[in-house]
Amino acid sequence: MRAITTRANPGNSRGRWPNSAAGWRRAASRPKAERIGVSFAAGCAHTFRPVSRAAGLPMRQSTDPAANARAITEAILDHWHRRAPEDRLAHLVRHASRGFRRSLELRLSEHGISFGQWSFLRILWREDGLSQRELSLRAGVMAPTTHTAIHRMEEQGLVELRRDKGKGRARAYLSARGRGLETRLVPLAEEANAVAVTGMSADDAEMLRRLLLQMVENLARDEIAALERGLRITSTRDFGAPID
Q1: Which residue from 49, 27, 48 is spatially nearest to 38, judged by alpha carbons?
Q2: What pLDDT does residue 47 have?
Q3: CATH 1.10.443.10 at 114-184, yes or no
């Protein structure tokens, strides 16, 4: 397989991307699992570029996604075990979260389902017939993201959009196919979770759950207190605005 020519993406510093139309076509023609592996390696390689260089790991992506993932994993573990074991806990949680997501994404790809679609399916399995605004709030994403995802899911036959009488508000209802995926996809998520706690005792896993819940509560209280003081998260639209 030919390697894809890449360049640094000035609009997104998380990875490297094809620099020509032909490159994008070659990328799109790859099997989905392979595209996932390469994109994961690209994102991690940027974050751990100094670590990878110091550890003697290859700085250029291989066409073998498994080799990419193996090299990046070695760099990440070397960072935490030897080079910076006292690095901020937020970074460690972020890497664990990325690992959870990639593990599930690879499993979902066999069924033609993206991670974003999985998020909306999980919500609709619990509460069907939600509006796009309600889905956005529950998923924690912006309305345009939900709009695009739900219409794509409608095209795939996973949901049906029906409008409320008199209000015109569209609500998403699972199709028979979307409902039937629950028994096939939920075990994949359970499998990814089981992989994550391999080597832990049941007591250790339960303690980890309690500690993570405590972190969630602490950070939620901190956010509420900050909002009550009048602080707001800066929108990307404000970055170019003049400062008074």
Answers
A1: 27
A2: 45
A3: no
Beta bridge partners of 159: 174
Query: What confidence tier does 117 reach under pLDDT thresholds 50, 70, 90?
Result: very high
54 has a pLDDT exceeding 90: no
pTM of the full predicted structure?
A: 0.65
30 burial type by CB count under 10 A (0-12 exposed, 13-18 middle, 19+ buried): middle
User: Which run of H or of E encompasses 36?
Assistant: helix 32-47
Which structure tokens are listed for 178? Answer: 């979307």
In this prediction, residues 161-167 reach a mean pLDDT of 81
CA 238 to chain centre: 25
CB–CB of 143/136 below 8 Å?
Answer: yes
Q: Which residues contact 30 (CB under 8 A, 6 or more apart)?
A: 1, 38
Q: Residue 178 pLDDT more than 80?
A: yes
Q: Parallel, antiparallel, or unpaired: how do β-strands 130-131 and 159-163 relate? A: unpaired
Cβ atoms < 10 Å from Cβ of 65: 21
Given a contact cutoff of 8 angstroms between Cβ atoms, the answer to whether 133 and 205 are in contact is no
- Residue 36 has a pLDDT of 45
Which sequence spans correspond to the domains of the chain? Answer: 1-110, 114-184
C-alpha torsion sign, points 125, 130, 134, 135: positive
The DSSP result for 101-155, as a single string, is HHHHHHHHHTTT--HHHHHHHHHHHHS-SEEHHHHHHHHT--HHHHHHHHHHHHH
